[in-house]
Amino acid sequence: MTGKIAVFLAAAVAVAALAAGAAAEERHIAITAKRFEFRPREVVLKKDEPVVLEITATDRPHGFSVPALGVRATVAPGEPALIHITPTTVGRFSFSCDVV
């Protein structure tokens, strides 16, 4: 009987470890910047979910700014910017290009 309990506990620990690892993975969101617009126009993030925003400029340098979340990046054409973020607050936050 002890052998069955040990196997069950080992399996439960392994499943918990896999679940914890999966929860820590970052969700990837691709954003394209081009003259006067970002695509997609809206990005939905979940509180406490790690995310990587990959921003690619197709025409010229762009800035990507979300002041309320402390996010700022410069994006050059052909050089995607990777922004790692884990939102800790709930709300609607505007992002914009801040390079003229």
Q: How would you concisely characterize the structure shown here?
A:
Helices cover 23% and strands 33% of the residues. The chain contains 1 helix and 6 strands, in the order αββββββ. It is globular and about 35 Å long.
The tally of helices reads 1
Q: Could you say which structural class the secondary elements and strand pairing correspond to? A: alpha+beta
Order of helices and strands: HEEEEEE
Adjacency order of strands in the biggest sheet = 2-1-3-6
Q: How far is the N terminus from the C terminus?
A: 72 Å
Mean pLDDT: 81
Q: Which oligomeric form is depicted?
A: single chain
- Write down how many β-strands occur, each being a DSSP E stretch of 2 or more residues: 6
Compile the SSE list and pairings:
Layout: H1 2-24, E1 27-34, E2 37-39, E3 51-57, E4 62-66, E5 71-75, E6 81-85
Parallel strand pairs: 1-3
Antiparallel strand pairs: 1-2, 3-6, 4-5
